[in-house]
Amino acid sequence: MGPLSTARRAFLRRIGRYGLSLTLFSGAAPALAGARATLTGIRVSESSAEHTRVVFDLTGDIEHRLFTLDDPHRIVIDLEHTRRSEAIDISRTATSLMQGIRSASRGSGRLRVVLDMQGKVRPRSFELKSDGKSSHRLVVDLHATELDPTPIKTSREQRKQSKPEYVIALDPGHGGRDPGAIGKKGTREKDVALSIAKRMQKIINRTPGYRAILTRPNDRFVSLRNRVKKAREAQSDLFISLHSNSFRSSHVRGASVYALSLSGASSEAARWIAEKENASDLIGGITLDDKDDLIASVLLDLSQTATIQDSLELGSDVLGHIGKVSRLNNREVQQAGFAVLKAPDMPSILIETAFLSNPGEEKKLRSPKHQQKLARAVFSGVKAHLDSRRG
Ligand SMILES: [Zn+2]
Fold this sequence. Notes:
The protein is an alpha/beta fold and 391 residues long. The protein is 36% helix and 26% strand. It contains 10 helices and 15 strands. It has a 6-stranded mixed sheet with strand order 11-10-12-15-13-14, sandwiched between helices. The protein has a 5-stranded mixed sheet with strand order 5-1-2-9-8.
């Protein structure tokens, strides 16, 4: 966390100095918030089989955020207001600890760099300011962790064998004693959700590199907590909850996609803290036990913020594809405090496919053909999202 706060402190110092002009000329704020930097080089060195160092050369001051993801193990580094020079070659960056590096430009000028690891590592990062001779540098040290008994794998083939590339958790809303919304013709939300989820599972399992699990495989009641738990146990990469809406006015119609809201996340973070033991494996190998609750909550917030950002991007890709087969209620991804979306490390969205309270949409939701179209559209959105992240 050190480098982040250093950058932030520098930023605050600048704000302090220019506070007045910021107030008077608020248009100048983006420039002060960090001149755009270019990533001009990535250097990888290996001092031993247990230590790899990755140095990023930059043309200016940046703010970065680093977090880890498991299964497969990877380190994600977000560089704010940074673009990558075309000239960088990252094709041969493998070391004993690292399989390789990839990068992709994200929304709002952010560059995301992903280090694909051979196994679990302990990352540490710090920034070095330009000293006249050298440019700005971001240094990421990767140390093998003794805590991880997994043997270091040597080839990509082994990694592929261990797990399908992506596991998608499909969560049909409601079930059992909870029917969800009920349409005028008696269509129950729980049945529609299960039917669409099963169709989607078939489509996904037919696709190489993808596997789908259902948090509720039949008409039974499953608590929200257990749905998320099931998805986590299957090591799901994404969580997709399927619902259909109802409203007092039968005119309201169209699909919506939700991600977790930040306010919802922060209250949930408090609950996760109370369950430190369970939470420690959720934030990428940072053990919480030896840190005080404040730091723990900051770490978890960072992890959750990154997950929500991912969820919003996933949601927007899915929304775009649903829009091709259905009317949309809202063109933007909505945010709310749904309990089922609160896993801090698994991008999660909730889809309200249509309104059962609208007679026209109820009719459509009953149609196997339309259900199939929806299932295909949602998965196309998921695939588009995951493809864009491959870098
Ligand atoms: Zn519902």
